[in-house]
Amino acid sequence: MTQHSRDTPQFYLTAPSPCPYLSGREERKVFTHLVGERAGDLNDLLTHGGFRRSQSIAYRPACEGCRGCVSVRVLVDAFRPTRNMRRVLERNRDLVGEMRVAVPTSEQYGVFRAYLDARHQDGGMADMTVLDYAMMIEDSHVDTRLVEYRRGAGAAGGPARRGELVAVSLTDVLKDGLSMVYSFFEPDDGARSLGTLMILDHIARARGLGLPYVYLGYWVAGSRKMDYKARFLPQERLGPEGWDRVDR
Question: Are residues 176 and 59 in the same domain?
């Protein structure tokens, strides 16, 4: 194989399957592999073009007659939390977030399994084993991290210990932002709004790193699963002519 063929991505199209977001629709995806020395640069480029990463695959919807999946990224410097978001931050003051090397643990899998069983029993990931989870975390050729969120580690002056793990985000570090690949949390902590908290924390982390965007993946108008993404304003949504700013 020549150097040129190794560095030139090959794209493939999946067969139709039921759409997970819009009832009665079918979805198809175009995808390519993210491998080799240029995987990081390719991931950056494809993310700008509306692709998402899953392990060593970058994919984008390619559905006939439907453009419902819209890539969304939050404008970090212009973002201001709403009153409700400030309440979420206040409720979670006892949690500590830490960005770590992407290494899977049985503790993470326990939270992941509880999340799937409570929120996504019928989803495509419902049967994932601990080995499947480890592959999801480790099978990456790009700059990938885990952000763990834990309860405070006890009273000051007490024995040093790590607090209980309550939420995790698998996150790619891009040249222009943080891309939240997959997030999960303890389902019994619903009052904490941990999904919202993780996005707010990533916006703060991106600001601290001098990165202009937080990529949230796809927003689908009319899908209750995706409604929450539209609340993080201002944001940009990828349309036929490029990224368009949305303020309300």
Answer: no
Strands 213-220 and 177-185: parallel
State pLDDT tens for residues 124-160: 677 899 999 999 999 999 999 999 999 986 544 444 4
Range of the domain at 22: 11-69
Residues 63 and 105 in one domain: no
Sequence-distant (6+) residues with CB within 8 A of 115 are: 184, 185, 186, 187
Residue 183 half-sphere exposure toward CB, CA atoms < 13 A: 23
Whole-number Å distance between alpha carbons of 71 and 79:
17
| Residue among 136, 57, 56, 67 nearest 104 (CA) | 136
**Are residues 141 and 104 part of one domain?**
yes
| Angstrom distances, CA of residue 227 to CA of 43, 97, 220, 232 | 26, 25, 7, 10
Q: Is residue 122 part of a domain?
A: yes
Using one digit for the tens of pLDDT, what is the confidence trace for 164-181?
Answer: 999 999 999 999 999 999
- Tell whether 79 and 55 lie within a shared domain: no
